[in-house]
# Entry
Amino acid sequence: MNAGRVKIYEASPEVLKLLSGTRLRVSIIVTNDLIYGIATNQTIADQCIRDNVLTYYPNTKIRSILVGNEVLSYDNQKMWADLVPAMQKIKKSLVSHNIHNIKVGTPLAIDVVESIFPPSSGKFKDEISDKNSGPGTKRHWGMLNPNGTPIYELDLTGVRPGSDYPQTTFAGAIE
# Structure
């Protein structure tokens, strides 16, 4: 097998332990049902990091914590509004443990993007970017990165123009 990365949709102690000592870079998804609790309670975010990161890191090469799965594809304004605060609390927990090289992001499905080609002109659909409470708004961008650095890294590797099935998802990240 020639895999270099693996995405775990539900953090499993057995799987994280098995990945220890391998060269695989791991992304762990925090499930959608946990977003509200994490967004409203730092203790829940801290527990999530204790259970799913501190126990295994750095022997397991965790490269990112992905909060939610394709949240913006659901018409759930509450979950949209809770996404950024949940991401911030996860990042705060990592930083409190002096972990700075694990990115925090959220996987986005291709259906939230209006255009992807050329990559330099990629943009969210109007119904995503125009929502006042959605993480794609300028208000949230400024809140996440007051120094003006980009919030969303759109990873377009493997996206083929004209393909209905891109080889990757888009991810919004908090640096």
